[in-house]
Amino acid sequence: MRLIIREDPKAVAYYTANYVRQRINEFKPTRKRPFVMGLPTGSTPVEVYWHLVDFYKQGILSFKNVITFSMDEYVGLPRSHPESYCSFMHRHLYDHIDLKPENIYMLDGNAEDLAAECQRYEECIKDVGGIELFLGGIGPDGHIAFNEPGSSLESVTRVKTLAYETVLANARFFGGDVNKVPKLALTVGVGTVRAAREVLLIITGAHKAVALAKCIEEGVNHMWTVSVVQLHPSAMVVCDEDATLELHVKTVRYFKSIEQVQEQLIGRQNIGLKGSISKLSGANANHQPDAPQPEAGKQISDDESSSDESSAEDTKITSTVAPPASSRSDAHGVRSNGALTSAATAGNPF
């Protein structure tokens, strides 16, 4: 498992979005060989989606041959409801990119037979060849999607009763009224996530520090479903400094040193996008210094962008969506000058 540590949530969001961009472009998806993604909802990925939209607008990313599967959906909430996850994904991503409607898969929380709907979803994933990259966030108790503590690590898409803490946490999206928050949800299972060929988790904030520590430093435990990524052959966690507060100092230093060795001693040109060492030619003594980066505000063309970038700082792309580094943001990625609004209250930020 790879642990990538960045300074703050904004740097995490950019790194993650840029990684997704590179993965899709490196994959070179076609109609017959699409790039299949699992996508999360919630506050954490919002700014990642804004960056992806910006990459599309710049012409350096296309979703034309991408298929998406949403992680979850409330039961009994109309799809048109502003807080449904269907509305969420359209508001923050789908309505602003060239993703084909027929390539968007979502769970139907209003299906007559919920169990059959969950089975249909699993079959749809198999029909498209499985998920290439599962992007996810976690809750403070370490749950992935709605796979809360106690969930089976072999579980597949199913109906889940939400824990009271989750209902309380989501009440902020429903005017603070817990009675308006749905108590049931459809969710992909832990096993569904594990079946993806790659898993990328975003973990930010001191309130998720314990969950990250459980994920990185302790054993696999169904009470912390995020810990299952330890068993995955291709998993990466991108976190900010605040999320590392519960990790041992030696753990943080270890993962930072791995990235430092790859960057400075082995060389980016020898490292594959997923962190594997693809070659050793030019390493160490023959390693050339990095090429100078473009000035701030200069847009990078397709020819100039590199497919083996490995950090958010490697490429500076002008973003009309992401706020400048000097902007302050709260836990939901809100820009202090009010230009961008939160996931809970946002209309169309574009």
From TrEMBL:
InterPro entries documented for this protein: Glc/Gal-6P_isomerase (IPR006148), Glucosamine6P_isomerase (IPR004547), Glucosamine6P_isomerase_CS (IPR018321), NagB/RpiA_transferase-like (IPR037171)
Role: Catalyzes the reversible conversion of alpha-D-glucosamine 6-phosphate (GlcN-6P) into beta-D-fructose 6-phosphate (Fru-6P) and ammonium ion, a regulatory reaction step in de novo uridine diphosphate-N-acetyl-alpha-D-glucosamine (UDP-GlcNAc) biosynthesis via hexosamine pathway.
HAMAP family the UniProt entry points to: GlcN6P_deamin
Name of the protein this chain belongs to: Glucosamine-6-phosphate isomerase
GO molecular function ontology, one term from the record: isomerase activity
Compositional bias segments (type: Acidic residues): 302-312
Annotated source species: Linderina pennispora
EC class: hydrolase
Keyword Hydrolase on entry: yes
Keyword Hydrolase carried by entry: yes
Organism lineage: Eukaryota, Fungi, Fungi incertae sedis, Zoopagomycota, Kickxellomycotina
Annotated segments matching region Disordered: 279-350
Catalytic activity: alpha-D-glucosamine 6-phosphate + H2O = beta-D-fructose 6-phosphate + NH4(+)
